[in-house]
Amino acid sequence: MSIRFRQLQAFHAIYETGTVTGAAALLGISQPGISNLLAQLERETRFRLFERVKGRLIPTPEAGVLYQEVDTVVRGLDHVSQAVVDLQNKQGGQLQVASQHALSFGFMPKLIARFAQTRPDMSISFQSQYSSKIQEWVMAGLFEIGICEMPLLYDAFEHHPLAVETLVAMHEDNPLARHEVLSPALMEGEPFIVMGPDHMTHRRTREAFHTAGVPWRTRIHTHLFKNKLSFVKEGMGVAMLDPFALDFDEGGGFVTRPFRPRIMMDLVVITSRARPLSALGQEFLALLLAELAPYAAAPEPTAG
């Protein structure tokens, strides 16, 4: 098998954009060139990578597996290319940060923008991804700083843990809003919008209802806190949401209440143990930790 990087790059671009046209624009080559590279890759792999549905290219299951392996490699080369451009332009350093999705829609963009105000020559590389991928990126040196969910999958990081308390978010007209604090007993039969069964908020909420002897009704499963909040606003159910999704939403239409027992979400800021942080990275890390500190949940009072 003789797979060339350009073929993988074309495949990655099609997977990301969903069309040959989008991939051609992204890579700056012709549409026939993209189609030819994809055809070459399919001949080398001996399986179809996309099915055409209503003008879009839908990845096959084999393409999904291949994408997971190709993604880090292609993005790594993008970082190399950007580094060359920065050196050519004599940029004043590059901030390299990756974050899990919950912080990426408001908290991180605002913090990075504030940090960049006094650094006009700084270039910025910011990506949001699932926590396992963020750990791979930081370990591989593609990003200096990562913010992800526990657990840590590798013993390769300097890390700064942060436990945040989630709140129950509900439509503003939900009758449960009359309570100051919610519990499994008060929420019996209420439809929940949840993350996948492996997510810590899913497991911990399920355990809280099980311990209380109350049936837990799940209605919608999704993969982003932002999606959960959107369904809440539509009155589709209630959701346990982190403060970042709630504090940086500007649409309104929902209210929040504390839940007991508390459902915690464990976050961690990571850097590579094998590589020292740049001076720019050190400055941003200090700011990031200071801004995250107010979100840390206070310890629960002890009895007696």
TrEMBL record:
Keyword Transcription regulation: yes
GO MF term list: DNA-binding transcription factor activity; sequence-specific DNA binding
Source taxon at top rank: Bacteria
GO BP of this protein: positive regulation of gene expression
HTH lysR-type domain location: 3-60
PROSITE patterns: HTH_LYSR
Pfam families xref list: HTH_1 (PF00126), LysR_substrate (PF03466)
Keywords noted in UniProt: DNA-binding, Transcription, Transcription regulation
Family statement: Belongs to the LysR transcriptional regulatory family.
Protein name: LysR family transcriptional regulator
